[in-house]
Every structure is written in structure tokens, then in C-alpha cells.
Amino acid sequence: MATFGTLSDRLTETFRNLRTKGKLSAADVDGTVREIRRALLDADVALPVVKEFTAKVRERALGDEVNRALNPAQQVVQIVNEELVAILGGQQRRLQFAKTPPTVIMLAGLQGSGKTTFAGKLAKMLEKDGHTPLLVAADLQRPNAVNQLQVVAQQAGAAIYAPEPGNGVGDPVQVARDGVETARRQQHDVVIIDTAGRLGVDAELMKQASDIRKATDPDEVLFVIDAMIGQDAVNTAKAFQEGVDFTGVVLSKLDGDARGGAALSVASVTGRPIIYASTGEGLDDLEAFHPDRMASRILDLGDILSLIEQAQGAFDEEEAMKVAEKLATDSFTLEDFLDQMQQLKKMGSMKKMLGMLPGMGQMKQQLDNFDERELDHTEAIIRSMTPGERRNPKVLNGSRRLRIARGSGMTVTDVNQLVQRFEQASKMMKTVARGGVPSIPGMGSMGGKPGATTKRGKQQKSRAVSRSGNPAKRAAEAAGLAAAAPTGSGFGLGGPQQAPSEAELAEIQKLFGKG
Question: Please, are residues 45 and 264 in contact by the beta-carbon 8 Å criterion?
């Protein structure tokens, strides 16, 4: 979520400084609120929203809920999170469907805000939920707007009603009215009307949008706003609210590099909820907007719920069970690995998914350096193998690896690294599937303390002594070492060491559950 990257960095740094303090004074709270105010203003959040937000945070941070908290810094983070959720709209709001189909959804917004692309994204999302949407091309002013919507509809696999060629020809109000009647006649349960925009707010734009609204009586009017528009976002939203009045907001281009904080102000200023957020150029890059999840992402607290939902949508539960069985029975192959990788690619950008994990904001450089093409390279290597080689990588000798490298356009080193990583991953996943604790290379078992294995190895190395090549001398050395060995039990108590009796061994075996 690049749009709020700068804001997220500033807020995270502010809270990091706060965590070093055991108890917060009024000066600490004022300093923190001041930094939050600067961060929000730098991110283009509207001034009235910033004033209200920081006043509430300061009031609560100086109250009893922080003074009585065991960890005041974490309590302040929680307060900021809750107030951020409030300015983003509080509760999630879903689309309201008509009791009698079709549900009419009208899109409004400036030219270039992403209305046409959003129409296709929404149609695809609704189709996945079992609806039958109809796109209506009522933007007859912008050059090639009708053609663009036709292409988007084809990509989304949705029906379209476009009786006019556009480019200034045709009556948009009549097209919108006829589109709703066509949907009713052809039994489409949702109508999405794509209306015209302008480079700026003007009387003609507002009149046309208002006339379409009166003619179609939509159940939802969604105002699509570019998250990169800057401070003008609030003024534009107010103008559309007064001229057309909308029921919900759609944030587009959240994957951009602009500061984007003005988009956070829209819900608070207009009192209308944000319903959807567009996070990329692909037709699948559309999310239902959850204020609490967005606040967590901004504060670098992660968004695990959205990640889980994406995984559930991309992964087949039955296939996942089969893979789990293969892991447990040591029959997981490179073919299975390829299938899992393809399902992973269905979830979208790896960078975006990794960015949903808590604390990943602190690893921004590593995320930026992550090459999405690595998955394609891995796929190319596996596809260059024969089915037999995929099922049994142990047959991969030097000549086979050279052939695979040439076939995939990679090097033999890349092939070797892939096979090595696959073997390590298979061992680790097999251990986890069987209920064990995996051993990470260089760290030993995850069940013990890090570095314990290394320490033990060093101790054993230091105790090791050179042995003579003469058998007689070697026996004498061994006898001498045995005599010099310290006596006593493992608990440091003196006395000769005694081997445990059979009864004691039986008790020990019972304790560890061994028969």
C-alpha cells in the first residue's frame, strides 16, 4: 500500500520513540500528538480532520485509561488506532441490494479517477458472488470511453449495454434509462452505470449526473475518487455531494506513490462510508474496504484477516488436504510444488501479500528489492524438467541439469539452488506435518535456545585432544583421560557415577511415554 507509505513510516517512528518510556508525562503526550499532527498534515489529510483527530487522541492519552495501563505506550498506539478507524468511517459498509432486482449502481467522479476500470472490477467481483451484472456505457463525452468499457467488460466476462458510439454522440440520460429497462427484461440482477466525468467540477457535469440519477433512481451512487488527487479531494467530494449526493465512496489508485492522506478525510468530511478500495491495475485488484484493517496497515500492525481471505479465495481446500497428506508421507514432489506456486500467484502480488504482515514496514528496503520474477524463473526451471525428474529430483545428474538450465534460460547454479531449496523445504514441511519442530539451517532446532547447538559444538571441540597413532599409547591416553574426568552427577553433586538400574530405566521410559 504505497499511497500511505510515508504516513505509516512517520507514525511508526513516533511510536517507536514512545515505547522507550516506562511512564508517560504530559510533555511526552504533547510531543507525540505534535508528531502525529505533522505526519497527517504532510500526508495531505484535511486540516479540520487533523485538528479533531489530534484533540481526541490527546484527551484520551492524558486520561485514566493510559495512566492505569501496564504499558502506556501500547495504550497510546491503541488509542490512535481506534481514532484512525473512526475517521475512516468506523464500521464496514457493504453494498445495499434492492429488494426487487435489478439493483442500480451509478458511478460518479472526475475524469481519470478510474470509474470505467472500477466498473469492470466491480462486475467481476459481483459475478464471483453469483450476480449477473450489466454494464451501461453512459459516458458519451470522453473520446473512446465506450470502447474502453467494452474492452473492460470483455476482460471481466460481463454483459454490456452500449447502443451509442459515444465521442459526443448520443443522450446519456436516455442510454442510462434504457439500460435499466434492458437489465430488467434480460433478468440481470445488477446494473452498473458508467457516467461521464470532467477534468474539474462544473455545472454541466453536475446537471448531467443529476439527470441520470433522477431518471434511473439508483440504489447506490458510488463516488470514485483518485487517492493521489491531494488536498482537492475534499473540495471535489463536497461538490459532488451537493450536486448529486452519493451513498458511498470508492478509493482508487491506492497502489500509487502519492501521499494520499486526503482520501482519509473523505469519509469524515462527507459522512459517507468508503465501500471499496482499488489496489492495482488488474481487474482482481479490488477489496471491500474495512476501516479497522486499513488503520492496522497504516500503523504497520498488519492485515492478517485480508491475507487469510485472499488465501481462501485462491487455494482449493481439497487440494490443500492432498498436499498435507503428501507431506506427511514424504511423497511431495516438484510437480506438487509447481501447483502450489501457481495457486500462490493467483493471490496476486507477493510484495502486497508480504506487506500485510505485521512489522513489514520496517523491512521496506527488503520488500522493494524483492523480485516478483523469481517465481517465473522457478516455474521455468521446473517446466523444463521431464515428469520423471519432477517426481524424483535425485536422478538429476550433471548433464540433465545442464539441459534444464538451457531449456529454461537459467544457469546450472540456479537449477542446483532450486533443487537444494526444494529438498530443505520438503524436510522442514515434512517435520511440521508430522507434528515436529523444524530445524532451520544455522540455528539448530527451533525448540531450543538459538545458538545452543553451536555452543555445544564449540565445547566438544575444545575438549577434543590429539590421539596418538600408536595403539598402546592411545590406550594409555584413554585411561589417563578417564582418570582425569570429573566425577559427580549432572547436578554437580560429588560422588561416584552409577549406572541407573533397570527399574529406574523403566520409570524414565514411562515418563517420556516410551514402552
Answer: yes
Q: How many CB atoms lie within 10 A of CB 439?
A: 16
CB 194, CB 116: distance < 8 Å: yes
The pLDDT-based confidence of 233 (bands split at 50, 70, 90) is confident
How far CA 406 is from CA of 401, 409, 410, in Å, comes to: 9, 5, 6
Measuring CA to CA, how many Å separate 398 from each of 309, 370, 412? 43, 30, 9
What pLDDT is stored for residue 112 in this prediction? 82
Q: At residue 232, does pLDDT exceed 90?
A: no
Asked if the model's pLDDT at residue 464 lies above 60, the reply is no
Per-residue three-class SS string for 438-451: CEECCCEECCCCCC
Residue range 281-294: mean pLDDT, rounded: 84
352: how many CB neighbours lie within 10 A of its CB? 20
Secondary structure (3-state) at 105 = strand
Terminal CA-to-CA distance of the chain, rounded, Å? 56
Q: What is the mean pLDDT of residues 200-217?
A: 86
Cβ 59 vs Cβ 44: under 8 Å: no
- Most confident region among 78-87, 154-163, 500-509 by mean pLDDT: 154-163
- Per DSSP, the residues of 204-223 read HHHHHHHHHHHHH--SEEEE
- Whose CA is closest to 124, among 316, 353, 278? 278
Q: Report, as an integer, the average pLDDT of 95-114.
A: 90
Taking the C-alpha atoms of residue 278 and residue 372, their distance in angstroms, rounded to an integer, is 20
> Could you give phi then psi for residue 131, rounded to 5 degrees?
-90, 165
Place of cell 539448530: 444
